Amino acid sequence: MLSSKVTCNSHGQDSSYFLGWEEYEKNPYDEFKNPNGIIQMGLAENQLSFDLLESWLKNNPQPAAFKNHDNQSIFKELALFQDYHGLPAFKNALVKFMSEIRGNTVSFDANNLVLTAGATSANETLMFCLANPGDAFLIPTPYYPGFDRDLKWRTGAEIVPIHCSSYNGFRITKSALEEAYKEAEKQNLKVKGVLVTNPSNPLGTSLSLHELDLLVNFISMKNIHLISDEIYSGTVFSSPSYTSIMEVLENRNLMNTEIAKRVHIVYSLSKDLGLPGFRIGAIYSNDELVVSAATKMSSFGLISSQTQHLLSEILSDKKFTKSYLSENRRRLKERHEMLVKGLQKTGIRCLQSNAGLFCWVDMRHLLSSNTFEGEMELWKKIVYEVGLNISPGSSCHCSEPGWFRVCFANMSEETLNVAMQRVQSFADCMAKKNIQSRHQQLLQRNSRRSKSLPKWVFELSFHQREITADER
């Protein structure tokens, strides 16, 4: 009685990434009401700078009250506005904000911008524009688990992983790109492009200039598209500084070429401003056909005109945006260092990172076996026994077991301290068990060795002890 789309199991909701959320929702941590509950460290939310936004709203009450600068009501005007192209004032403010995040090294044209209800909608819309059902996009691993839903579920597109390794910090290489392309060909899939997140979710690292050049060269050679999801571009809190794909195109004098038309950017205010509930996303493309088609498709996921109006006022306040970006980065860096140092005290290290709302954490030494079964066993212990919801690397399609994404910006400092105390207790307990296990293995090995020795060895040993006793 239902469609195949409804009854198929390709949404990805059964991933451990989402299952961890479900367990958290059953037993959420609360400092007073439920101190033994599960702490949510699997959600990449930025809650560190709400006070800055709330302060702006307090000092600028007109936009939230739907009034203009003359204190006249514009409620009716906003309530009736329904042009899916979006409010010009908001689009102009957004492209300027995107330039500001990138140090004004590049500029964006509001005519090339398409507004969508969040980055999820932006990525799916681009899939509809660029790929037919059964076509493939190559994505470096590890990658955001939600891409399996966002890119594939309704579009029918496929994902082929570009396998990256810890030996070079999970950096993209030319050989990995070529291997992924060949793998797609083996599966009889037509490759339509490459999608990257820059900075990376879940690695928390920004792409190097070498990697960006590799990608531009690769799509040029293969005549395919490149989608750069730059949703975390404003969260870069330490060196190296952030480089957008747009900057690479400009520096290589490629802006007015066919290559530039095949490069598309996804952006959102969900991470940089911490406003996921406002559903503010965007597609930026140099291809007029893509902009036109995506604009028509945006009818299915519009941003309310009230939201656009409010955000256009906030983003147009350049003194505020400059102060906000600087302070938010400072707070992210401070909180990142707090998590890294807390984990280091327990003997757990993180991949060196410079951006994002999370760390890519190495727990390979805590695995009972170097397998994904061992990873899931450890993950269940951390969720149910330690009371922390973190994301296992397998949910991010990491090719090496034992890595986990741990978020740090969606909680208070006090809650993070509680989380670190729990990790310390768990690590101490694991260390004791490992010592006991090694001792037990040693005893068993000695026992087996003793049983395998011939009888004359025991007789000689007994005779030697008798001689030694007589000599004493």
From TrEMBL:
Report the cofactors: pyridoxal 5'-phosphate
Q: Does the keyword Coiled coil apply?
A: yes
Annotated keywords: Coiled coil, Ethylene biosynthesis, Fruit ripening, Lyase, Pyridoxal phosphate, S-adenosyl-L-methionine
Q: Which residues form a coiled coil?
A: 167-194
Question: Which Gene Ontology terms cover its molecular function?
Answer: 1-aminocyclopropane-1-carboxylate synthase activity; pyridoxal phosphate binding; transaminase activity
Q: Which InterPro entries match?
A: Aminotransferase_I/II_large, Ethylene_sulfur-biosynth, NHTrfase_class1_PyrdxlP-BS, PyrdxlP-dep_Trfase, PyrdxlP-dep_Trfase_major, PyrdxlP-dep_Trfase_small
Q: What organism does the UniProt record list as the source? A: Helianthus annuus (Common sunflower)
What is this enzyme's catalytic activity, as reactions? S-adenosyl-L-methionine = 1-aminocyclopropane-1-carboxylate + S-methyl-5'-thioadenosine + H(+)
The record's Pfam families line, in alphabetical order, gives:
Aminotran_1_2 (PF00155)
Tell me the protein's name.
1-aminocyclopropane-1-carboxylate synthase
GO BP, sorted A to Z: amino acid metabolic process; ethylene biosynthetic process; fruit ripening
What is the similarity comment for this entry?
Belongs to the class-I pyridoxal-phosphate-dependent aminotransferase family.
Task: List, for all copies, the residue spans of the domain called Aminotransferase class I/classII large.
Answer: 39-423
- EC number, as in UniProt: 4.4.1.14
Q: In which pathway does it act?
A: Alkene biosynthesis; ethylene biosynthesis via S-adenosyl-L-methionine; ethylene from S-adenosyl-L-methionine: step 1/2
Instruction: List, alphabetically, the PANTHER family matched.
Output: 1-AMINOCYCLOPROPANE-1-CARBOXYLATE SYNTHASE 9 (PTHR43795:SF10), BIFUNCTIONAL ASPARTATE AMINOTRANSFERASE AND GLUTAMATE/ASPARTATE-PREPHENATE AMINOTRANSFERASE-RELATED (PTHR43795)
